[in-house]
Amino acid sequence: MQTSARGWHCFKCEAKGDALALIEITRSCDHAAAVSYLEEFTGIRRPERRNKATESPQSAFQLSSSIKSPPSKPPAQDQSERIAIITAFIQKCSPLSGDALQYMERTRCIPRSILERANIRFCGSDYVEIVDDLGSTFGKEPVKAAGLWSFYGYFKAQVGFLLLPYQSGGLIVYLKARPPLSKQQCEDLGVERFLFMRGSVPCFYAQGQLQLHSERDRLLICEGEIDCLSAIAMGEAAVGIPGWAGFKTEWVRQLKPWDGRVLLVLDGDPAGQQGVQDICSKFLDAGLQAPLVKELPAGKDLNDLLVEQCRSKK
Predict the structure, then answer these.
(1) Which value, in Å, is the radius of gyration of the alpha carbons in the chain?
(2) What ranges do the domains of the chain cover?
(3) What is the spatial distance between Cα 68 and Cα 120, in angstroms, rounded to a whole number?
(4) pLDDT in tens, 161-190
(5) Pairing of strands 292-293, 262-265
(6) What SS3 class is residue 279?
(7) CATH: 3.40.50.620, 3.90.980.10, 3.40.50.300, 3.40.50.150. Which one for 67-202?
(8) What is the helix (H) or strand (E) element at residue 95, kind and residue range?
(9) pLDDT one-digit tens code per residue, 17-31
(10) Whether 306 contacts 114, CB under 8 Å
């Protein structure tokens, strides 16, 4: 990780931001909780200042007059309402087609059948229109509180994005977004490779794979959604985590049926090695066997191996 007076930049996952953004990621909390933590840690309180949260952000697109920036601290929201709003948002976004489908199916070599089961969607210039429509249905404040404004950066940059739903018990409980672009293309356009909804990630990606414990010999824990989908395309049972720091202690209990059959597939860099130690310690603390570790070739991830496998068959 590189740090400077302007902030930090992680070269493993390409995330970057200020001190608050780093706290949000490492502590899996929202912005308000990160501010509170920093105030407690430093003893420095924020000065009172005018709240600009209701001012409409500037955009290359013409925004609906009813859409404004979300407040920094959204009101408390019932989980069932949040799930209903997230589900409605996904339903209004487009199924994969065109360049977005080609990126996932040809560039990433993930079969369409797996993409459809994962319910991956695409959103573009209709983003604000969709959010505006949901505001009319559910109310503007509940929609803001649900965290759908988190993807505004892509809309502002006029970049369409994939939506990767996190599902638990058959319900969509969280969303992560990424453009169907390479790392270099994102850098050239000045956009983030990934954007998360407000709040912490509540479950594994592809959590339904945990139910396969009686059918499969092992379970892979993969770093990132694309690697998880790649493992599934290879015929493995797999779940994904949004970086090893996002792995929660309470998730270990769900892996008890897989005890002794879990394989960690993290990046092979120093950060990945730290992640292996952290996750293994969580297993041991829960009374489970430490996972086996799959060492990937230097500079490679699981999707790279899938792409090489696909190309070798042509």
Answers:
(1) 20
(2) 1-45, 67-202, 207-305
(3) 27
(4) 999 999 999 999 999 999 999 999 999 999
(5) parallel
(6) helix
(7) 3.90.980.10
(8) strand 94-95
(9) 788 777 776 665 667
(10) no
